[in-house]
Design a protein that fits this description.
Layout (H helix, E strand, L loop, with lengths): L11 E2 L2 H9 L8 E6 L7 H5 L4 E7 L2 H10 L7 E3 L14 E6 L5 H10 L4 E9 H8 L9 H9 E9 L4 E2 L6 E8 L9 H13 L5 H4 L7 H4 L13 H13 L2
Parallel strand pairs: 2-3, 2-5, 3-4, 5-6
Antiparallel strand pairs: 1-8, 6-9, 7-9
Helix pairs in contact: 4-6, 7-10
Length: 256
């Protein structure tokens, strides 16, 4: 059996019913679809994914011990198991368009989502289990203290659904926190209509000093005086919707 490794943030799901529910949350079109499972570990999700004829499955696993285990227990997937780090692999060679599923390691879940943002033209859907606190943040709307950088950046490109909570006792070892499952579905937005790198800079800078008004938080961007004078900048970052952040970025870009 594979030993869970603390440095990899491994908490192996052992509840078959929850594993089945997570896989069932994938919305499949009926045609064969490329699905990438991140961090399959001992294959609790893999068993349900591999049996679905609509799924062309690839597994990305960084843990050598897990890779050996998966190859022994899923011999038909031998050539589909990729040993490596999802954060560093060239995903473009795997598929032009794909879905992602996984029980994300708590210690790198935010990094995984930033990588998904980089791959947003290819990643059409994500179903994942992660720390409830992070799930709450991603799904939250403006006006909440939980709302933050990932909320805005992900909601700009994905429709986000909060599916269900998962208690610590269904994992080995049990984490000290609750978990939750969410689904992200790529929206129809092909472009934000502004410089998307600038959009990310505006959002990140706004939330880095979230207690300050936007006027003060965005000072490092050296905004044009006409932008600084806008009443919108009297607000704090958590008060702006995704659309307002897009509109603000357009105004800033127009004055550069």
């Amino acid at each position: 059996m594979v030993r869970p490794k603390k440095f990899l943030g491994q908490h192996f799901l052992k509840d078959q019913n929850i594993a089945s529910k997570i896989v069932e949350a994938l919305r499949l079109t009926g045609e064969p679809q490329q699905v990438i499972e991140i961090g399959p570990g001992t294959g609790v999700l893999t068993q349900f994914l591999a049996s679905n004829q609509q799924i062309d499955l690839k597994l990305i696993e960084i843990d050598r011990e897990s890779v050996v285990y998966l190859k022994e227990h899923y011999p038909k997937l031998q050539t589909n198991i990729i040993e490596g780090d999802f954060l560093e692999l060239d995903l473009s060679v795997l598929a032009s368009e794909y879905l992602i599923i996984g029980n994300f390691p708590y210690n790198i879940s935010s990094q995984i989502f930033f990588r998904i943002l980089e791959e947003r033209t290819r990643v059409k859907q994500v179903v994942c289990m992660l720390q409830k606190e992070v799930a709450d943040r991603i799904a939250e709307k403006e006006g909440s203290k939980t709302y933050g950088i990932l909320s805005v950046l992900l909601q700009a490109y994905y429709d986000i659904e909060y599916l269900f909570k998962v208690p610590p006792g269904v994992f080995h070892p049990p984490p000290k926190v609750m978990s939750a499952v969410i689904r992200l579905t790529r929206n129809n937005r092909t472009t934000l209509g502004c410089n998307e790198e600038l959009f990310q800079r505006v959002v990140k800078q706004s939330f880095q000093n979230r207690r300050k008004t936007l006027r003060n938080a965005l000072k490092p961007l050296n905004l044009d005086a006409s932008i600084v004078a806008l009443p919108l900048l009297d607000k704090r970052a958590e008060q702006l919707s995704v659309e307002q952040f897009i509109d603000l970025t357009k105004l800033i870009e127009a004055k550069q």
